[in-house]
Write a structure and sequence with these properties.
This protein folds into 3 domains: 114 residues, Macroglobulin (MG2) domain (Immunoglobulin-like, Sandwich), CATH 2.60.40.1930; 53 residues, no CATH class; 44 residues, no CATH class. It is 2% helix and 41% strand. It is built from 1 helix and 17 strands. The strands form 6 sheets. Strands 1, 2, 3 and 6 form a 4-stranded antiparallel β-sheet that branches. A 4-stranded antiparallel β-sheet has the order 5-4-7-8, with no helix packed on it. β2 and β3 form a beta hairpin. About 9% of the residues have low confidence.
Length: 226
């Protein structure tokens, strides 16, 4: 049997009492097989046990099939029952991969679950790529966010897109060049006729193209919490 080893990585946002455990935690880790990072899907099972290895009352194993592992990295969402008196235990998470128990059990303390405080669906800005547990908001590529306005149903609805990086200006001009008054030869000799004005209509238009007028900017990646 190929030996599977794991080194678990946790993202922390600060401390909090364990009895304030949220209803879900993000469990992240690195999985290696024979010393090499895993690049495939694995069936995993997660259990909550105490320091003695006994199952914490009220919990049951959580099985997750086909967990994607990329370059050894994986992340899963584990539901937590806040009604369990966690403060009465020293809880650990026991991980099984393809039925094989990974030792040792991983301690679950106040600093190891704060990542779950990030609500699902939240959009955040990252410098390059989205981290584990996040997905890029591709609709924001080349765009900036605008706050939705529920009071105005004609524009700025949630998910609505608009605008353009460039625009054009059209300028028109109308003019009349006069050369009068002009009198006929008969009128000037007193034999009748009239005088009038002559001229030329020089109406024309101008089309002015404009490139982007954006101020200096820095591109980033918008990611959404899964």
């Amino acid at each position: 049997m190929k030996r599977i080893a794991t080194f678990l990585i946790w993202t922390t946002l600060g401390g909090a009492p364990l009895y304030a455990m949220p209803s879900q935690i993000t469990f992240q880790g690195t999985l290696k097989q024979q010393g090499a990072p895993v690049n495939t899907t694995k069936n995993m099972q997660f259990s909550f046990v105490d320091a003695s290895g006994a199952t914490i009352p009220g919990t049951s194993p959580i099985s997750i099939a086909n967990v994607q592992v990329t370059n050894g990295l994986f992340a899963v969402q584990l539901p937590i029952d806040p009604s369990i008196p966690w403060e009465q235990y020293s809880p650990f998470i026991r991980v099984l991969v393809e039925g094989q128990i990974l030792a040792p059990d991983q301690p679950l303390n106040a600093n190891l679950y704060a990542v779950s405080a990030i609500p699902q669906g939240m959009v955040a800005i990252f410098a390059n790529t989205c981290p584990l547990g996040w997905s890029e908001v591709t609709n924001l590529r080349g765009r900036f966010p605008v706050g939705a306005d529920p009071s105005n149903p004609n524009q700025f609805n949630i998910g609505e897109t608009g605008g353009a990086l460039t625009h054009n200006h059209t300028a028109g001009q109308n003019s009349f060049i006069g050369y009068g008054p002009y009198c006929s030869e008969f009128a000037m000799q007193g034999y009748g006729g009239g005088c009038g004005a002559i001229g030329a209509d020089s109406s024309h238009g101008h089309t002015i193209s404009s490139a982007s007028s954006l101020p200096p900017y820095l591109t980033v990646v918008f990611c959404q919490k899964l």
